[in-house]
């Protein structure tokens, strides 16, 4: 494994936000924004105007705080832009929608180099471009005088294209549970970075720039998905939300999880062996890969890219997630994970 080189920006003070000024920075950032197919009025006025095909708008927001969600010595500005966009675009996909635009609010120290902010803007635009979306507005403010951290708030808007939204509350007994995308890679990459290394590059890159399966969300909605969720905090944690909202038990097939995410052996096993860890812990509890998990009726034809990993059982007074019939908490302890997933105020 190789140790990381610091990526903290060291721009010329003459290029700082304080010197260039709010509107100068905004002009530079907007030069990287790209174009949204849905925008009738883009950046430059008091608000953007977007076209929508069916009269409804999907809306979601995430806040990323430096030191908790990203580190500038681990990730480039472009990486952080990609990650901030992906967290929100995946939420739109999890409703069965397609993203149309982003609104971005950013608080940063006045000494922040404008070149770093341009890098974030470029990452946001690159992540949005394949979907035809773009940043269409936002706000830039100075962080508190006693703060050296960046706070990035991203709101994503999306279009359902005439489809019904897929909620967390629709899972029914007899449904199958399926996943699109990969699990455990971002958590594995985080474990590598925390130990001061940057290889294997595949998992470190997965932490820096998630690769959500955006098209899988609308495809699942078309295929009749009964519930769906973005896996941002961990498979067990996020399926727990589905189980609670739907008042059911969700039983994951351990063999299917291993077959789907750990065969053939790859970087996760390589890192787990080096660290004395169980790679299944990352699959079950690792967040930020932004895979999609959904339930379908057993007769449904699953779209390409979806793999069955479990089933839904009646809940009665008991709801939650099982793995091979065992309570998730017992499995979490057995694989050596710290908990069922990310805890925001832990």
TrEMBL record:
Keywords linked to the UniProt accession: ATP-binding, Kinase, Magnesium, Metal-binding, Nucleotide-binding, Thiamine biosynthesis, Transferase
Binding site for Mg(2+) 5: 233
InterPro entries in alphabetical order: PurM-like_C_sf, PurM-like_N, PurM-like_N_sf, ThiL-like
Annotated binding of Mg(2+) 2, by residue: 62, 91
Pathway: Cofactor biosynthesis; thiamine diphosphate biosynthesis; thiamine diphosphate from thiamine phosphate: step 1/1
The reaction(s) this protein catalyses: thiamine phosphate + ATP = thiamine diphosphate + ADP
Binding annotation for Mg(2+) 3: 46, 91, 230
Residue sites binding Mg(2+) 4 per the record: 46, 60, 91
Ranges of residues in domain PurM-like N-terminal: 44-158
Pfam families for the chain: AIRS
Functional summary from the UniProt entry: Catalyzes the ATP-dependent phosphorylation of thiamine-monophosphate (TMP) to form thiamine-pyrophosphate (TPP), the active form of vitamin B1.
Leftover remarks: Reaction mechanism of ThiL seems to utilize a direct, inline transfer of the gamma-phosphate of ATP to TMP rather than a phosphorylated enzyme intermediate.
Family annotation (NCBIfam families): PRK05731.1-4, thiL
UniProt similarity note: Belongs to the thiamine-monophosphate kinase family.
Listed name of the protein: Thiamine-monophosphate kinase
């Amino acid at each position: 494994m190789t140790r990381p080189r610091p990526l903290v920006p060291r721009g010329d003070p003459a290029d700082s936000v304080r010197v260039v000024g709010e509107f100068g920075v905004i002009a530079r950032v907007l030069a990287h924004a790209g174009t949204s197919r849905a925008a009738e009025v883009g950046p430059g006025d008091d608000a953007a105007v977007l076209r929508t095909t069916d009269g409804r708008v999907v809306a979601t927001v995430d806040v990323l705080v430096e030191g908790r969600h990203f580190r500038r010595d681990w990730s480039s500005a472009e990486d952080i832009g990609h990650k901030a966009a992906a967290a929100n675009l995946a939420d739109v996909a999890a409703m069965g929608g397609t993203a149309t635009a982003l609104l971005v609010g950013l608080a940063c120290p006045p000494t922040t180099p404008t070149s770093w902010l341009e890098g974030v803007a470029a990452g946001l635009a690159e992540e949005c471009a394949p979907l035809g979306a773009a940043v269409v507005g936002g706000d830039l403010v100075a962080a508190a005088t006693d703060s050296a951290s960046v706070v990035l708030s991203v709101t994503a808007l999306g279009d359902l294209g005439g489809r019904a939204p897929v909620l967390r509350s629709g899972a029914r007994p007899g449904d199958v549970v399926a996943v699109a995308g990969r699990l455990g890679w971002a958590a594995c990459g985080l474990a590598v970075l925390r130990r001061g290394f940057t290889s294997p590059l595949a998992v470190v890159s997965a932490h820096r720039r998630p690769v959500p399966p955006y098209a899988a969300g609308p495809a699942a909605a078309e295929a009749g998905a009964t519930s769906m969720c973005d896996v941002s905090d961990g498979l067990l944690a996020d399926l727990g939300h589905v189980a609670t909202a739907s008042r059911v038990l969700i039983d994951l097939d351990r063999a299917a999880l291993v077959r789907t995410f750990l065969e053939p052996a790859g970087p996760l096993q390589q890192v787990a062996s080096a660290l004395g860890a169980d790679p299944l812990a990352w699959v079950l509890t690792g967040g930020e890969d932004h895979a999609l998990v959904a339930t379908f009726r057993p007769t449904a034809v699953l779209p390409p890219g979806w793999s069955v990993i479990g089933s839904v059982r009646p809940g009665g007074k008991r709801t939650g997630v099982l793995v091979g019939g065992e309570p998730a908490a017992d499995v979490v302890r057995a694989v050596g994970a710290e908990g069922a997933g990310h805890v925001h105020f832990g």
